[in-house]
Fold:
Amino acid sequence: MAGTLLVGCQDTSKKEEAAKDNVEEARDNLDDAKEELSDARAAATEEEWNEFKESTNATITQNEIRIAEMKTKMKKTGKSIDEAYAKQIEALELKNKNIKLKVQEYKNDTNSDWQSFKEEYNRDMDELGTAMKNLTVDNK
Structure:
């Protein structure tokens, strides 16, 4: 009887040790998988970020050109354009500069919320585009 009890206790301690080893191995595998996933996300986001940044810079440059054209048109008319129109152009220019600054300051890393940033950028650009269209329509 004593032998059976001794053998039974040894089996339990071996099982506990094996279970602990399995838990450690699972944790290591989980850490490795998290690291691989993070690396994969960063690489995909980097490519997407570069494309986004190129597109953004082109759009911002187009906006700068349109604003400059509005300013030139305003000066060429020879009439005194009302102050409200001039202020609206200045507001558009400021909004475009702020968007450009946000893009330049954005840190493309795993701590940043890429989707949220992109949604906010698209909303801001839509608002700016609508404001520019409305200003030119009102001017005609």
Summary: Helices lie at 2-76, 83-105, 114-139. The mean pLDDT is 78.
